Amino acid sequence: MEWLAQWGTWHWLILGFALLIAEIILPGIFLLWWGLAAIIIAAMNALIPIFSLTTLGIIYAILATALSLIWWKYQHQKDQADEQKSHLNQRDHYMLGLKGTVEEMAENGIGRGHFGDTTWRIQAQDELLNIGDTIEVIQVQGITLGVKKVK
Fold first, then answer.
1. Who is most buried in 12, 51, 102, 112, counting CB within 10 A?
2. pLDDT attached to residue 4
């Protein structure tokens, strides 16, 4: 219990818990790592009370920065992996490879295709399409689907 009497330990603990509470109130995942770094400094100061306040401040700055960067790198990689898997708000990625049937066709290669429960404007790519042909989406340009005939 002697370590609780140390002046610096209490201050680091209060700073750490204040930052953790601030993280709860203002979520952003950033204050979490600064708060954990302060708690680690408090524990280090309690176990090895030989460091000056300046040294502890420098160690805290390095530790908080390192924890934040490690978390950022981990989260950034995870976000990129999730983004590659998710097609939410990327309708064109979802549409690629989708198969449907031709409902209408004009001579200029523009028509309407039925995909699932809706129809889309389609444009034939390099071949003539007839009503009833099975087609596959190979590109998306705005609201027009570039399609090819499935053989």
1. 12
2. 46
